[in-house]
Amino acid sequence: MSDTQVTQQTNDITVPQAVGDGLVLRWSTAEDVERIGELAAYVFRQKAEEPPNAHMVAWMRDLGSGRHPLTTVDQGVLVEDTHTGKVVASMWLIPITWSFGGIRFGVGRPEAVATHPEYRRRGLIRALFDAFHARSARAGDLAQAITGIPYFYRQFGYEMALELGGGRFVQFDDIPPLKDGETEAYRLQPATEDDLPFVMELYQREQGRSLVSSDIPEAYWHWTLDGMSVESGEGWTTLLINDLQGAHCGFVLVRHTRWGKTLDVIQMAVTAGTTWSTPMPSVLRALQALAPQVPTGRDRANPSRLLFSFGTAHPAYLVLGDALAPRRDRVYAWYVRIPDLPGFVQHVAPVLEGRLSASPLAGYSGDVHLDFYRDGLHLHFADGRLTTSESWRRPIYSSDLKGAAGFPPLVFLQLLFGRHSRTELEHIFPDVWASDEAGMVLDVLFPPQSSLVLTLD
């Protein structure tokens, strides 16, 4: 059966549907969780001779436990071989909420995407994505996003549009020791449920540093404390930064699992009255002491360094400096899909209008026409307000069109989500261009801005 035939059948599934050769596509039940885990454990291995990946089994059990704060047992979508009873392809939907400059929107996150090697190149993953996209749309999500292997998800309408990971390494040997006779001025202490209001309030303040960030519901903070299994390798440990009097001065989020020689620190924040440089030496020494106690993944190497995975920009980097953290970890990217771009741009219009009002273009009136070569986007502003955001196609005769710019399909998403500036994209892609007026407006509407988007697993 062709990819096209599978896609036509599964755009909006509500009941099991046959996809050929005795294969059935449907949503999961509690009875499927172990079989989905078996498939994921087999597929997510580095080498053919490796044993099944036990971390994936534990993660699938968490997602299908009925206790997970974000997803439910029926949000796995799978293909079952009715001849053998095996799950041969699957993925799991995790509904999340992101913030774009303070404007919230729903995101459908597909994860643990897997096909058994014997069933590949039959269009099964495309069928799963069609079903997932339909369900995500019914839920009102404005976007879908996934962390994943290079290139693959571009096939399904995703663009690597938003920064993911990246940071600074600190070698243990470079961490300054405590001087003789001195006492640590700050200590790290595991957070309890009573501490979560402090952590949540500080995290919400930190969201303002990022263009895009994850909204973390209270139930998920509780889940990270005592819900998710350590065996899954997912999630984080929340550690409070306390002074000698026990006052909370900040927090640090550390991965539940240490992969190899690196302890991954995924978020750090301090209170408004705390200078970043003051607790940092104590925090570094405490993390170094903690690293050998963190459960390890497949590679059980002794720890020798920290990785502050805060993206391209963070106050901690200024404090660490090149002396302590000279080596950078390469930034990767979230894959993002925006099925209704005009609708999304209209949704975040308050952010765009705020940028205009704070710029020399305050009160701007005019049109911007974005040519994506297959389709396009028309934006009309009146007195600094976005009054029109609609699909558009460049006319055949348009040499006198003002306020025009061009981007290859989906590349505009990199500008929208702050990953690259317009001029950077022009250097990367010869077919990105803009008229003088459009370039001026686009530079104000879409400046480059870093994002720290935590994965909620």
Describe the structure.
- Strands 1, 2, 3, 4, 5, 6, 7, 10 and 16 form a nine-stranded mixed sheet that branches. Strands 9-11-12-13-14-8-15 form a seven-stranded mixed sheet. The protein has a five-stranded mixed sheet with strand order 19-18-17-20-21.
- It has helices spanning 3-9, 33-43, 54-63, 124-138, 196-206, 218-226, 280-290, 315-324, 341-347, 349-357, 412-416, 422-428, 436-445, and strands at 17-20, 23-27, 76-81, 86-100, 103-115, 143-146, 159-164, 167-171, 186-190, 212-215, 236-243, 248-255, 262-270, 305-308, 328-329, 332-337, 366-371, 376-382, 385-391, 404-406, 433-434.
- The protein has three domains: 3-146, Gcn5-related N-acetyltransferase (GNAT) (Aminopeptidase, 3-Layer(aba) Sandwich), CATH 3.40.630.30; 167-332, 3-Layer(aba) Sandwich (Aminopeptidase), CATH 3.40.630; 340-445, SCP2 sterol-binding domain (Nonspecific Lipid-transfer Protein, Chain A, 2-Layer Sandwich).
- The radius of gyration is 24 Å and the shape is globular.
- The two termini are 34 Å apart.
- With 457 residues, it is α+β, with helices and mostly antiparallel strands.
